[in-house]
From TrEMBL:
Top-rank lineage group of the source organism: Bacteria
Domain Carrier stretches: 3-81
Signal peptide (residue range): none
The organism of origin for this protein: Barrientosiimonas endolithica
Protein name: Carrier domain-containing protein
């Protein structure tokens, strides 16, 4: 299984937001609520990551509830790839 770097996942996240006319801030501390990154956007990002690494990511709803910032998304997806 291959993995994606944080920068690669960040770039995909920027593409998901860009498709909606939104921009990904440079700071990992940026609030998802403030930038308009919703659960549907997370799902799209997770699917893109799965397509790239050719593996299904297994995650649960309680884990998703703790995600509040751009950095949280990057950390979460990094953990899933390395699980």
């Amino acid at each position: 299984m291959s993995t994606l770097s944080r920068d690669q996942v960040r770039e995909m996240m920027a593409e998901v937001l860009s498709a909606q006319g939104k921009q990904l801030p440079a700071e990992d501390s940026a609030s998802l609520q403030e930038i308009g990154f919703r659960s549907l956007d997370f799902s799209e990002l997770a699917l893109r990551v799965e397509d790239e690494i050719d593996t299904e990511l297994n995650f649960d709803a309680p884990g998703l509830r703790s995600i509040e910032t751009v950095g949280d998304v990057l950390d979460f997806l990094d953990q899933l790839q390395n699980a």
